[in-house]
């Protein structure tokens, strides 16, 4: 009743809390059979998840990969593994996360299935500035250069549109890309889609 009288009963969040997990996944436009097509899809999803991760200033301590057949086709053999791997050092670096995802894909991929969906989830998120580096593993990549590279990729994709710059392993998207033939027009964001009254 108090709300109807204009009295606020709960405070609005001044700051949205950081996500504890970030997931990017999608269904394929047509069945996928090869490891290469799955690798391309997963590379694309990792890049998108890593961009979200950097936007909130976090680093991921773990990564989950899943691939799935179509459960609505019971006549097809079914297979839906999901594997989570811990990262040695929490990271927001797209190439490093992609390498971990493809390593995981190699462990779960089987060639006799019609895959319909795949995805990546970044887990064990922590603030990037406080992420602990590994004492006994020497990384031969300069972290400053990797940070600068990821910042350039994020900036280009914000300016020129998502996917303007992407990993080479994500280039082959013809087989797995989602069908979008029945997408609603972008009435509020694209001038060409604004309805015209005659």
Automatic annotation (TrEMBL):
Residue intervals of the DUF4113 domain: 148-197
- Enumerate the InterPro entries for this protein: DNA_pol_Y-fam_little_finger, DUF4113
Q: What species is this protein from?
A: Jeongeupia chitinilytica
* Record-given protein name: DUF4113 domain-containing protein
Q: Which residues form the DNA polymerase Y-family little finger domain?
A: 20-135
Taxonomy, superkingdom: Bacteria
């Amino acid at each position: 009743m108090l709300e109807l009288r204009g009295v606020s009963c709960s405070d609005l969040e001044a700051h949205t809390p950081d996500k504890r997990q970030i997931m990017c996944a999608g269904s394929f436009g047509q069945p996928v059979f090869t490891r290469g097509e799955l690798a391309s899809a997963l590379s694309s999803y990792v890049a998108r998840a890593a961009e979200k991760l950097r936007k909130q200033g976090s680093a991921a301590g773990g990564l989950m990969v899943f691939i799935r057949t179509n459960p609505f086709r019971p006549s097809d053999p079914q297979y839906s593994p999901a594997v989570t791997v811990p990262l040695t050092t929490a990271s927001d670096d797209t190439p490093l996360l992609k390498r971990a995802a493809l390593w995981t894909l190699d462990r779960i991929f089987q060639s006799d299935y019609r895959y319909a969906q795949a995805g990546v989830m970044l887990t064990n998120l922590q603030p990037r500035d406080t992420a602990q580096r590994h004492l006994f593993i020497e990384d031969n990549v300069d972290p400053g250069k990797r940070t600068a590279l990821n910042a350039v990729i994020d900036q280009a994709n914000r300016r020129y549109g998502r996917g303007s710059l992407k990993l080479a392993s994500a280039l082959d998207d013809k087989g797995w890309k989602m069908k979008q033939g029945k997408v609603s027009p972008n009435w509020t964001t694209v001038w060409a889609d604004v309805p015209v009254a005659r």
